[in-house]
Specification:
Its EC number is 1.1.1.95. The chain is of the alpha/beta class and 598 residues long. The chain contains 18 helices and 26 strands. The N terminus is likely disordered.
Length: 598
């Protein structure tokens, strides 16, 4: 069984402007995990109800003067720092916009207390972990961030930690200030000729790689979405996750915190690294299991660590990790330069002012714009499109570089009458979101794809089918061309990973994988097995799952010819452990298998 881990960073995209005849905002709620805000007219406009007065913007954490000046030109600005949750809730009902950094939690209670007045929340920085996006969307509030202004600052801080760690600068400084002169104790290591693995080759990771190359280091990177051409231009070799951690002398982390990357660096991961590896983290604290890192430092598997971020910030005063003699730490200073702070302030101020003036900000993360009648009609196909994208990307081998995808729709309607913007956005969402911190919607889908070098093509095929003439879409097919696959049977003769699905009775179904026809509901978790077509296979696999108290929700078998090969698709309610999956793989007639989360 192959396991692939992947991630990358988020980006900015050009602004869009909407000018409807009458400003209004309507929230539509559907029973699936994708938030929608839409306007009954064909465009969306956000503005304050009191058209003759300036909107009020609450600044809950310090913002540089350049950003404040820009805001004051268009709004009344209330700078109230260090508010408790109760104080924030009491104040927010009189505010049209709120700007925060990472220290203020914008919870559901905040949106409830705003009573519908709050129109936009601006996060002065990249991560939006502290903003309840679902609640924001439910209350019709736009959320924007500022993801680009601190790129260079974060990269520079990563290099500063790298060099300081290698030469024991922090420890030696503390020693001298304590009246000691311990030259032999603080002998460092050279960077020239050492291998640096950059884990996450987005904006910050790329800039770290560029600077590390200038220090004479050999740089490798892991990021399945990084264009190979861009990596080669920087003199960087793209490798698999396992190769990156096994060969690196230094590992620099630049991935977002997602369910996939949460505690990705743990006891098992550390055990597969080169003994004496050194780790730098200026990304998110949660990607490292901090207790496991302490154990790895104590037993010498990890020689040193340099950390700017932590699972809990600030960390406990008695934190074993922070106090460890071979760890250097800084208090989340990645974006803390004068230049970066000014850039972030201006970027978020422009986004908030634009939103209050009726523009959909370039960094909006929760506001797809589709007429409600289209949303209603496409609702079940939206789920199908996202799950097909999610399924397809999990089939890609970790070391493969994805350059694009093709989406083919069959419909009884003429191609020009089928609005597929939302469906294409949801395929993009399914492909991108499981392994990134990007929030993909119809507004930013095309730009996010472009930033990652992903070329999305679409084909609409008119196909009359009995009883389906009233439905907007008969089937959706997702193809990822020319990539390696964790499940060879998903690859067509043309070398493309291909999955296809339909909606039946309102439920999305997988109907084809590669050249094999199947029929499975896209719910829960899925095990795909390619096997020799022979009696007893369903019982053997089902028996293994039953022995581990894993419930099978559905099972389907598709084959090419009798007695040849078949694909068995098994839906399971629980996630099997590694040992259970390995038992399935030991069945002689099973030629390959893969476990997928839907």
């Amino acid at each position: 069984m192959a396991i692939s881990k992947a991630f990358f960073s988020s980006s900015l995209h050009p602004s869009l402007h909407y000018s409807p005849s009458r400003p209004t905002t309507v929230s539509l709620h559907f029973p699936f995990p994708f938030p929608f805000s839409a306007a009954p007219s064909r465009n969306l406009r956000l503005r304050c109800d009191a058209a003759d007065s300036k909107p009020t913007v609450l600044i809950a954490e310090k913002l540089s003067d350049s950003g404040l000046d820009l805001l004051r030109d268009s709004a009344d600005v209330d700078c109230s720092y260090g508010l408790s949750p109760d104080q924030l809730a009491a104040k927010i009902a009189s505010c049209d916009a709120l700007i925060v950094r990472s220290g203020t939690k914008v919870s559901r209670e905040v949106f409830e207390a705003a009573k519908g007045r709050l129109k936009v929340v601006g996060r002065a920085g990249v991560g939006i972990d502290n903003v309840d996006l679902q609640a924001a969307t439910e209350f019709g509030c736009l959320v924007v961030n500022a993801p680009t202004a601190n790129t260079v600052a974060a990269a520079e801080h990563g290099i500063a930690l790298l060099t300081s760690m290698a030469r024991n600068v922090a420890q030696a400084d503390a020693s001298v200030k304590a009246g000691k002169w311990q030259r032999n104790k603080y002998v460092g290591v050279s960077l020239v000729g050492k291998t640096l693995a950059v884990m996450g080759f987005g904006k910050v990771g790329s800039e770290v790689a560029r600077r590390a190359r200038g220090l004479g280091m050999h740089v490798i990177a892991h990021d399945p979405y990084a264009p190979a051409e861009r990596a080669r231009a920087l003199g960087v070799e793209l490798v698999s996750f396992d190769d990156a951690i096994a060969t690196a002398d230094f590992i620099s982390l630049h991935m977002p915190l997602t369910p996939t990357t949460d505690k990705m660096f743990n006891d098992e991961t550390f055990s597969r690294m080169k003994r004496g590896v050194r780790i730098i983290n200026v990304a998110r604290g949660g990607v490292i299991d901090e207790d496991a890192l302490v154990r790895a430092l104590d037993n010498g598997q990890v020689a040193q660590a340099a950390l700017d971020v932590f699972t809990e910030e600030p960390p406990a005063k008695d934190s074993k990790l922070v106090l460890h003699e071979r760890v250097i730490v800084t208090p989340h200073l990645g974006a803390s330069t004068v230049e970066a702070q000014e850039g972030v302030a201006i970027e978020i101020a422009e986004a908030v002012v634009g939103a209050l003036n009726g523009e959909l900000a370039s960094t909006a993360v929760n506001a797809p714009m589709v007429p409600p009648e289209v949303l209603s009609e496409l609702a079940p196909y939206v789920i199908l499109a996202e799950k097909l994208g999610r399924l397809a990307v999990q089939l890609v081998a970790g070391e493969s570089g994805i350059k694009g995808a093709k989406v083919v729709y069959t419909s009884s309607r003429d191609p020009e009458d089928l609005d597929t913007r939302l469906l294409r956005a949801m395929v993009t969402k399914g492909i991108v979101e499981p392994i990134s911190s990007s929030f993909v919607n119809i507004v930013n889908a095309d730009y996010i794809a472009k930033q990652r070098g992903l070329n999305f093509a679409e084909e609409r095929i008119k196909r009359e089918q009995n009883g389906l003439n009233g439905t907007p879409v008969n089937s959706i097919q997702v193809q990822i061309p020319h990539v390696g696959s964790l499940f060879a049977s998903a690859v067509t003769d043309a070398g493309d990973i291909q999955v296809e699905g339909k909606v039946r009775d309102g439920v999305p179904h997988l109907t084809k994988i590669g050249s094999y026809a199947v029929d499975v509901s896209l719910e829960g978790n899925l095990i795909l097995c390619r096997q020799v077509d022979q009696p007893g296979m369903i019982g053997k696999v089902g028996g293994i799952l039953a022995s581990q108290n894993i419930n099978v929700s559905f099972m389907s078998v598709g084959r090419t010819f009798r007695g040849k090969q078949a694909i068995m698709a098994i839906g399971v309610d629980e996630e099997p452990n590694k040992e259970t999956l390995e038992k399935i793989g030991t069945i002689p007639a099973i030629e390959e298998f893969v476990f997928l989360k839907l």
